[in-house]
Amino acid sequence: MIRILYATDFSPAAQSALDYIIHLAGDLGATLDVIHIYKIPPLHSEADFTNMDTVLQEIKAAAEEKLNELTSGIPSEILNTSSAIFGMFIPQEIVCYADKNNIDMIALGAKGEHNVLEHMLGSVTTHTMLSSPVPVLSIPDKATYRAIKRIAYATDLNPKSFLPIATLKKIADRLGAELRIVNVKKDIDLPDMSDKSSYILENISNFPVDIIVNPSVEEGLNNYIQTKEVDWLSLFIPRRRLWERIFHHSLSKQMFFHAHVPLLIYKE
Fold it and tell me: Is-contact 182 161, C-beta < 8 A?
């Protein structure tokens, strides 16, 4: 059974994402772990240090109360557990929980500010994506759930980008969704497959493939999402030293920041 981890900060965007995830878990036949990471609040006096244990206990109790309220409407067959966890570095705590508890997917709400690169560089969603051992589903704050019928996997046709295909196909099959491969070219020339054609054909021969010609990758994919009525867009993040190099070649940074559908991110 698929096990999904959802981390909440109790914001309105997080609540909206939880509603989405509950419906998704039902369609996937998955269970859901809900966690909240709390940390030490700002300290303003010596008394704050002296009473630290008491302060942390109070914060944990308040978080657990909110979690109980938040999860009270989740069907018992979907909710696996809920936990308030202490940690100073939220993305690391999320990833650590996922690693220790055999989580198959992490789901996070993406706030409205996530379409600005400078804000994203510091966001929990971004840093979780960069370090997660499992795929991360980023849910826009205005997304409403509907049955997932079509998933588009955007690729630059690099052989490494096909590593998640088998896992993604299993998810699509569980949802009864069509999985399509999409590549955006900036000119009318066909993709250069001279040194990798056999590998690519082996990996995508069973999937519909759409080649889009558009000088803007962002515009091309956005148009594709609308015309094909895509419910999810999936991307592969290759290993890079710097954040600025993550979305490279034909996979535009801007696609990530402006997408209006949930993004399922796989990391190398």
Answer: no
Return the DSSP state at 159: G
Who contacts 163 (Cβ-Cβ below 8 Å, separation ≥6)?
A: 236, 266, 268
**Inter-residue contact 85 to 36 (CB < 8 Å):** yes
Q: Domain ranges in the chain?
A: 3-140, 150-267
Structure token pair of residue 111: 């706030």
CATH class as words, domain 150-267: alpha beta
Q: Convert the pLDDT of each residue in 223-266 to its tens digit.
A: 899 899 999 999 888 765 444 444 444 343 444 444 678 999 99
Single-letter amino acid, residue 153? Y
pTM recorded for the entire structure? 0.84
> What span, in angstroms and rounded, lies between the C-alpha atoms of 212 and 66?
46
Question: According to CATH, what is the number of the domain 3-140?
Answer: 3.40.50.620
